[in-house]
Write a structure and sequence with these properties.
11 strands, mainly beta, globular, seven-stranded mixed β-sheet
C-alpha cells in the first residue's frame, strides 16, 4: 500500500509560480510518481512523471519548458515546480503512484496508477 498526500496549491496570477509537493508513505515503494490534473468539465489529464530509480522524467506537451518534476527519495517526496502559469493551468492537481515499470506511453495512462491523492486546487487568475 502507498499513501500519497499533495500540498502547495493556491491562487496565483498569470505568469506566476507555484510548487506542489507529493509526500508518499507506506510499505510499498512506487516505481513512478506522476502528476495529473482535472479542470472543471474535462477529463483528468497527465502532466508529468518521474521514475524513482533512474530519475527519468516525462512531460505533457502543454507544460514542457514551464513545469519541472523532481524527487527526493530520502524524503519520499516528489515536487512539481510550475512557472509561467497560465489561466488554462487552472485545475485540481492530483499526485499518483504506480508500482509498475512504465514507458513513455504507459506512464500517461491513469489505469496504471493504483494510488491517488485527494488533489490540490491550483487557480491561475488575475
Amino acid at each position: 500500500q502507498v499513501q500519497v498526500v499533495e500540498s502547495g496549491g493556491g491562487l496565483v496570477q498569470p505568469g506566476g509560480s507555484l510548487r506542489l509537493s507529493c509526500a508518499a508513505s507506506g510499505r510499498t515503494l512506487s516505481s513512478y510518481t506522476s502528476w495529473f490534473r482535472q479542470a472543471p468539465g474535462k477529463e483528468r489529464e497527465f502532466v508529468a512523471a518521474i521514475a524513482r530509480s533512474a530519475g527519468s522524467t516525462y512531460y505533457a506537451d502543454s507544460v514542457k519548458g514551464r513545469f519541472t518534476i523532481s524527487g527526493d527519495n530520502g524524503k519520499n517526496t516528489v515536487y512539481l515546480q510550475m512557472n509561467s502559469l497560465k489561466p488554462e493551468d487552472t485545475a485540481v492537481y492530483y499526485c499518483a503512484a504506480s508500482v509498475f515499470n512504465l514507458g513513455i506511453t504507459s506512464v500517461q495512462a491513469k489505469i496504471n496508477y493504483g494510488y491517488w491523492g485527494q488533489g490540490t486546487q491550483v487557480t491561475v487568475s488575475s
